[in-house]
Write a structure and sequence with these properties.
14% of the residues lie in helices and 44% in strands. By secondary structure, it is mainly β. It has one domain (29-164): Beta Barrel (Lipocalin). An 8-stranded antiparallel barrel has the order 1-2-3-5-6-7-8-10. Strand 7 and strand 8 form a beta hairpin.
Length: 184
């Protein structure tokens, strides 16, 4: 009888622990500054738009000029909450292979990715991509028109960590900077 009681108590503790973890990640907000990625690293900022929609901007840490792109934009897009703790992510970035100003129309490329984001915990997220398309014709609409080149996105998984909003290693509290001339 005592063994059954202990087993029931252990199962209850496990169930409550799992449900508490699920609830805590479901109540996490993606708003903030994040760093990480996969082999290629990014710095990503997520800001609220309205309700469960968020704007995202990610800067790649990679010398793309070595890949033949002398100019490019950051990845920009949106996170839309789809269900408990999961978000649909869609982002685009634009590149040119030209150094001319303005670049010729046939030198542009728009890359588009879509995937899902979920919280590992409130300070860590995982993004898994299911679509990666390259568009060389700027008359095509990313995500609506078929891409000129489809990239297999099945293996692209990225993890990001939230930038902390506190600084225990900084020592004393931050002081407000002085701007302008000092008063006499």
């Amino acid at each position: 009888m005592k063994t059954k009681t202990n087993a029931v108590l252990i199962m209850c503790c496990v169930f409550l622990s799992v449900s508490c973890l699920a609830q805590s990640s479901a109540s996490c907000s993606p708003v903030g500054t994040w760093y990480g990625g996969s082999d290629v690293k990014y710095l990503m900022t997520i800001t609220p738009i309205t309700g469960e929609r968020f704007s995202t901007r990610a800067e790649v840490v990679l010398p793309l000029v070595l890949l033949g792109y002398p100019a490019w934009t950051s990845w920009s897009g949106e996170f839309n909450k789809s269900n408990r703790g999961r978000y649909v992510v869609q982002e685009i970035s634009m590149y040119t292979s030209s150094t001319e100003v303005p670049p010729p129309a046939n030198s542009y490329e728009v890359d588009a990715v879509r995937g899902s984001m979920q919280f590992i915990d409130c300070d860590n997220i995982k993004m898994t991509y299911d679509f990666y398309g390259l568009y060389f014709d700027l008359n095509k609409v990313p995500f609506v028109d078929p891409p000129d080149v489809s990239v297999d996105a099945g293996g692209i998984v990225e993890t990001y960590r939230r930038m902390p909003s506190i600084c225990p290693v900084c020592g004393s509290p931050a002081k407000a900077p002085l701007f302008g001339r000092k008063k006499h």
